[in-house]
Amino acid sequence: MSQLVIENVSKAFGTQQVLRDCGLAVDKGSVVTLLGPSGCGKTTLLRSIAGFLVPDAGRILVNGQDISHLPPNRRDVGYVFQNYALFPHLTIRENIGYGLKIRRKPKALIRGKVEDALGLIALTDFGDRYPKQLSGGQQQRVAIARSLVLEPEVLLLDEPFNALDAQLRLSMQIELRKLIDRVGITSIFVTHDQQEAMTLSDRIAIMRGGRIEQLGTPLEIYDHPQTPFVADFIGRANLIPVAIRSGRTDSPQPIAAAVPDGPGTLVVRPENLTIAEGPGPGWEGSVGFATALGATIEYEIDRGVGEPLRAILPRQPGVAPLTPGSRVTARIRDEAAAILLSGSPRP
């Protein structure tokens, strides 16, 4: 049985419908990320699980118990806020043990659990310091430890990397995933950053307009998006409008179609395009922009219609990138990796 189950949860604020029939089942010890653009409902769903909001419809269950209408302090759920919410006048030990203290746990038990938590987050020697004396990454670990000492069934994390610089974000993503794996706690993570979602998640729930549009592993979402929105939101994608007739696309490089005839969207990742100088079979155009990215070069190819095509190619040592204005032809490298969806690119 799944440890956390969300059944048809809906929530509105006045006339604005923020969540629409959201459903999700999370197995014990796994990490699920709610990913989507600002305003899609991911934080509202997280706060509904925590008990800060009460759903208008649907149920939220932890270990089979309906917690939908329980107050936050009666839910076995930990919550890590965006700004960590540490008490500046308390030491790190006091911050970590605060929740145990207000629950009137024995002092000896609190001391033991706090020391264990400090060891778990590799801050044993920092227990007597105050939050302002720690780096952003260290403060984040303290905020997580403060939730973990309460031994919640589910840990909720609301964009916990927002306050960190870019270089620290990546290292902390990896450290957080290692920590979650060591503890074995079921976790729900909210972000609008697709790289964070790909790094941290066992599964990703792509949200749009208050609904979960697709749920799957990071590679399932990337390799097999079910809608143009998901294809465009995860990774980078060329969304090419095509017409499907008699089981093939009408594109310059025809692709076999397993979807009904009519309008369609051909999804091609930039790394699945190759380009050659001069005209040829494929999408002809001119180089509009070239960006050298160390081991790769990213090209924008202007076809004179629609969005430019983006291609990412390995950089060949000693070979200069194509210059803007160069006439080129783009082709799909691996047709089996191209994705064909029914409907227009941006419904």
Automatic annotation (TrEMBL):
Keyword Methyltransferase in annotation: no
SMART domains the UniProt entry points to: AAA
Keyword terms: ATP-binding, Nucleotide-binding, Transport
Annotated signal sequence range: none
One GO CC annotation: ATP-binding cassette (ABC) transporter complex
Domain (ABC transporter) ranges: 4-234
Gene Ontology molecular-function annotations: ATP binding; ATP hydrolysis activity; transmembrane transporter activity
UniProt-listed GO biological process terms: quaternary ammonium group transport
Top-rank lineage group of the source organism: Bacteria
The protein's name: ABC transporter domain-containing protein
Organism: Skermanella stibiiresistens SB22
Taxonomic path: Bacteria, Pseudomonadati, Pseudomonadota, Alphaproteobacteria, Rhodospirillales
